[in-house]
Structures are given as C-alpha cells and as structure tokens.
Amino acid sequence: GAGVSQSPRYKVAKRGQDVALRCDPISGHVSLFWYQQALGQGPEFLTYFQNEAQLDKSGLPSDRFFAERPEGSVSTLKIQRTQQEDSAVYLCASSLAGLAGQETQYFGPGTRLLVL
Amino acid sequence: RKEVEQDPGPFNVPEGATVAFNCTYSNSASQSFFWYRQDCRKEPKLLMSVYSSGNEDGRFTAQLNRASQYISLLIRDSKLSDSATYLCVVDNQAGTALIFGKGTTLSVSS
C-alpha cells in the first residue's frame, strides 16, 4: 500500500520567502508528526496532531512556523519569512493511533529545504 | 545535556564483525524505546523496539537498562547492507513525540 508522501521533495527558497510543505499520511492513520532534521543531526520534533487536533506544538522553533491538519488527513507545515537556519529536511510521520511510542511511526521521504 | 546521547562514531568494521552501539537518555519518564535505521538521504525506518527483558531479531540484539537509563544495540556478523546511521530513540514524557539521538554511522567494508 501507499506510504507517507511529502511534497515538494526539494524546495529552494530565497531568504524572506514563505514556503508550504505538504504531507499525505497513510490512509486511516490518526496520528501525524512533523520533524526537522538538520545535516548531521537526528530528527527533532516539531509538532503532533491527533486527527485534526494539534496536541503538541512545543517543538516549533518560532512563530514563523505554523502547521495545520484541518480535515484530519493531509497536513501542511508553513514557514513564513524563511531564514538560512531553516535549511533542513522536514520529515512527516504517521501512525495508526495513540501516542508517539505506542504505534510504529512511518516516515515520509522528507522535503529538503534550502534557504539562500 | 542532550536528551538522548549516542556514541559519536563513525564505526568502520569489516564484514563479519560484531559491533555494539550505546545510548543514554535523560528522561526517566520515557516509556518507549527504539532503534531506527537511516540510510543516506533516506527517511528513518524502525529497526526494532527495545524492551527491559532484552530482545533479539536475527543478528540484532537490543538491551534496555532503565535504572541506568542506558540502551544498547548489538549487531553480529555484520553485512555490507548494515552500513547506515543508527538512531537511538525514546518517547517524551507526554508521549507526543519521539526524541532522537544524533545517530551513529556504521560502515561495513569487504
């Protein structure tokens, strides 16, 4: 079956530009997570949705970052006024139900963002 | 102090070698523990969950010591295809996120 998909796979943005990153989770998966992975680092948590409810956004680095999942399926991560330090791979993961450790999280291929 | 710390690596080993990775975590409230594998420029994939009783999956053995807040992964009879970055992962106190270590890179050569 289809896994988690993300688009675009690559994005080059000029500093100050707004970007929107899309995540299509596995059909029927209740939980959706966003992570940011900088070069040479492990993924770092950004935010967590259970259906359409954003239950944890403690990892969002600034108010320039905003995520939504209005219908409980597709999610969008928006970054406003991008800065060079935003350059990273943005990973989306989904799981069937429950909390982060209860079910296997399946990761998408990521969106590689480069801010010039 | 980072929440999850791993051996810095890289580990360069010949085929057939046994290699061990170590990891410590800081949050005693963590309930779930994992090893993920990440190939170069790919997404992380679950390798195995880790339980206090220890668990084995073929050539891979994982151990958890809750008292010491220590997790290990042992790979026996290394294969070329084991070359990857291995990420030690725990859940956060609220259970809403996975916390990843920086990863340890393994390179297996013939």
Sheet with most strands of chain B: 6 strands, mixed
Strands of chain A, count = 11
Beta-strand content estimate of chain A: over 45%
Largest sheet of chain A: 7 strands, mixed
**Alpha-carbon distance between the termini of chain B?**
37 Å
**Helix proportion range of chain B:** under 10%
Can you tell me about this structure?
The complex is a heterodimer of chains A (116) and B (110). Chain A is mainly beta. Chain A is built from no helices and 11 strands. In chain A, the strands form 2 sheets. In chain A, strands 2, 4, 5, 6, 9, 10 and 11 form a 7-stranded mixed beta sheet that branches. Chain A is globular, with a radius of gyration of 13 Å. Chain B has 110 residues and is mainly β. Chain B is built from no helices and 11 strands. Chain B starts with a strand and ends with a strand. In chain B, strands 2, 4, 5, 9, 10 and 11 form a 6-stranded mixed beta sheet that branches. The interface between A and B is medium-sized, with 23 and 25 residues.
Topology, element by element:
The complex is a heterodimer of chains A (116) and B (110).
Chain A (H helix, E strand, L loop, with lengths): L4 E3 L2 E4 L5 E6 L6 E7 L6 E7 L2 E4 L8 E4 L6 E5 L8 E8 L10 E2 L3 E5 L1
Parallel strand pairs in A: 2-11
Antiparallel strand pairs in A: 1-3, 3-8, 4-5, 4-9, 5-6, 7-8, 9-10, 9-11
Chain B lengths: L3 E3 L4 E4 L4 E7 L7 E6 L6 E5 L5 E3 L2 E6 L4 E6 L8 E8 L6 E3 L3 E6 L1
Parallel strand pairs in B: 2-11
Antiparallel strand pairs in B: 1-3, 3-8, 4-5, 4-9, 6-7, 7-8, 9-10, 9-11
